What we know:
The chain contains 6 helices and 7 strands, in the order βααβββααβαββα. By secondary structure, it is an alpha+beta fold. The chain has one domain (2-143): Gcn5-related N-acetyltransferase (GNAT) (Aminopeptidase, 3-Layer(aba) Sandwich), CATH 3.40.630.30.
Amino acid sequence: MRIRDALESDAESLATLIGRPEDVVRNMIHDRSVRVAVEGGDGEGSGGSGDGEETVLGFVAFDVRDGTVHVTDFDGSGSTIERLFREPRRFARREEMCVEVVVPNDEETSEVIEASGFAVAGRGPRFEGRRTTRYRIEYEELDGRTDG
């Protein structure tokens, strides 16, 4: 698995992955920092078709507001998300910022978020009628982490 910047040409694969219109995903790619996890294409990873095609396994989108890096969207398997979450953490550490993510209350998602170094920071806003939890990593906690 390899992590790279999302390209406009990834919009169709990402739209299929998350069930959103392609133009919405294309706007996300333009408006946010978006990283994708891929296999194949250059021979790295397994599961690629061997014909130069890449398979998108997941993504993370983030931006900065009020001095905090906010993860605004993500998708993928647990281990893929853990790898992808290294990207906003690296950015936050470099810029001396905290990182936050708000997710719907879901035990599986919570486990992945916590395995990625986040701690519960309180309730988040309701989203589509569902309760959410806000997770955060303080800059001081990022400073000591290795994201290699």
